[in-house]
Amino acid sequence: MTGVVMVVGVARYLGACLARVLADDPRVDRVVGVDVVPPPTELGGVEFIEADITTSAINRAIARSRPDVVVHMNILATRADAGGRVPQKEINVIGTMQLLAACQRSDSVRKLVVKSSTAVYGAGSRAPALFAEDMAQNVTARSGYEKDASEVESYVRGFSRRRPDVDVTILRLANVFGPVIRTVLSEYFVLPVVPVVFGRDPRFQLVHEDDCLDALRMATIQDHPGIFNIAGDGFLVLSQALRRAGRLPLPLPSLGHPVVRGLMRRAGIADMDSVQTRFLTYGRGVDTTRMHEVLGFKPRYGTVDAFDAFVEARARGGVLDRDRVDALDQVLRSFAGLAGAFGPGQKTADVAGDRHG
Amino acid sequence: MGEGAGSDASEGLDRLLTFLKRRLNGDFSVDAFGFDPELTEAVMLPALRPLYRHWFRVEVRGIENIPASGAALVVANHSGTVPVDSLMTQLAVHDEHPTHRHLRALAADLVFQLPVVSDLARKSGSTLACTEDVEKLLGSGELVGVWPEGFKGVGKLYSERYKLQRFGRGGFVSAALRSSAPIVPCSIVGAEEIYPMIANLDFLARLLRLPYVPVTPTFPWLGLLGLVPLPSKWMIEFGKPITTDGYPDGAAEDPMVIFELTDHVRDTIQNTLHRLLEERGGAFG
User: Fold this and answer.
1) Does A252 touch chain B (CB under 8 A)?
2) Is the CB of A293 inside 8 Å of chain B's CB atoms?
3) Residues A156-172, buried b or exposed e (16+ Cβ, 10 A)?
4) Using one digit for the tens of pLDDT, what is the confidence trace for A149-183?
5) B242 touches B182 (CB < 8 A)
6) Is B49 left (phi over 0), alpha (psi -120 to 50) or beta?
7) A233 to chain B, minimum CA–CA distance in Å?
8) What is the distance of C-alpha B25 from the center of its chain?
């Protein structure tokens, strides 16, 4: 039995979904959701506690509800979510410190699950093609969210040194995609014309939102201490993703230049910081061997499936939509069929057959 | 005759349309290193083929020394100011080998700093020359190509031609040892003459943070025309594989074993180069 589970960060989409999923799970006695504001949707059987994790209020919340498992979902990837870089860093770093301090003092907590991100590996021209879990230390240039995520992880490592009796699972998730979730990356692919870096075609992996929740639930209910990369099988390159979404690319010399960034922000296109622009320049790949073999987690959706699920729900009707490409192909084929009438090609035979029939 | 040509043409058109539709819809797949086999076979290799066949008239020997399947590490000499030799070796392996294997080349980090170049490199199967990537590739049974001289080899002066430079620290040998992959020595003759580098503008190279800025008989004097490589005659010979299994555990960290194997590979390539040069005669014959 898993006992009482506390999910920190339930006002946001994934946190709320996870809390609901856990509340419906018969193996969990009780689910307590914590956030600084109430969740926008009803959480079903989840008991909500309003507390700011950047203050000692989280300590009181833990002392009162005595959770067995704490799931930390409150690491924000984008500054827009927090209302700026300063509050983002405050929530990520100070929030984690307060939460860990509260867990350290608690005698009920026996497991901590942290939703981290593959952003801890950074992105760059010198990066290996696949990052394994033990390769997070040798990345140098870090700023913004990448820095937050690796600082959070280093505090978590410190916590597990001080409380060796508490199992710690860190899930480093690739970008989460799916029909519902909205992230900077998903909104980027909804743009009618998508700015890309000229001469670059970054590779990336995605994890479907359902798989993301499954992995977090698995880490919460079963005991799998350790660090795991979580990503769907297979890869996408940016140009391929844009074509699957029927979007037109707009090559720019750089997405990171202040002028480009300012124009994009002012046009309401996207508010991208250096972490996102580096990702969209160099891409990133992570090794999921440990997820398959040690964690025993098999994602139901591959990277391409997760992206297609998103496209089907959010990004149909682009300039180069699949239907238009198919129609164009049909038109060209019928022209070619007429032009090739003097040759007994397969196509012309079919056309002739149709006419007779 | 006319009918045959017509059906060929419409079949060709059919294939082209199917290909374009697939590309436009994004219905293709890349591997973890960004390798796009379809694009490589349909666009990149055909673009290099005229250069390979008619300009450099590449003659390939010992292709049977590359295993039909499974991991192997091809180690070759590097030269020519612009690393055309790695592209030609990739094409040689693909075209001449009975199972048309793809040689996964390891490239310097400069390649991945440059736009366009980095993109083409990844799509054609190259990746960064770092231990993690080599071991991943060899571990998944790929044929990997490495040019251990690096920029010391490509950027050397014409007067130093066919003199092998230092083979780094033998990182490629320890990677092969760890994966028990055989090493196939590869000697390339002809690449030295394509852009004979008579001087290196050291100060400019430092200013631009490039490994070298070449001066050749045609570059920069003839501008863009100076970028046309000279039509030297090429020979690529793959030598007998050197096995790396049968070493005790920990051999991959043993400097004695590594230096011995590195020297063995280097000497094999150097000796083959001398022999091939004698056989070839004139550089542009």
Assistant:
1) no
2) no
3) beebbeebeebbbbbbb
4) 888 999 999 999 999 999 999 999 999 999 999 98
5) yes
6) alpha
7) 10
8) 31
Report the alpha-carbon distance of residue B65 to residue B96 in Å, rounded: 12
Alpha-carbon distance of B5 to A342, in angstroms, equals 10
Count other Cβ atoms within 10 Å, centred on residue A138. 12
Measure in Å the smallest separation between the Cα of A245 and chain B Cα atoms.
Answer: 8
Do residues B76 and B147 touch, judged by C-beta distance below 8 A?
yes
CB contact under 8 A, A135 and B132: yes
Distance of CA A104 to the CA centre of its chain: 28
Question: CA-CA distance, B50 to A29, in Å (whole number)?
Answer: 71
- Nearest to residue A291, comparing CAs of A186, A356, A205, A203? A205
Q: How far is the C-alpha of B218 from the C-alpha of A295, rounded, in Å?
A: 60
Is A190 within 8 Å of chain B by CB?
no
* Cβ A323 vs Cβ A317: under 8 Å: no
Mean residue pLDDT across chain B: 93
The predicted pLDDT at position A136 comes to: 73
> Both tokens of residue A196?
């890309």
CA distance A356 to chain B (A): 21
Can you read off the two tokens belonging to residue B180? 């028990």
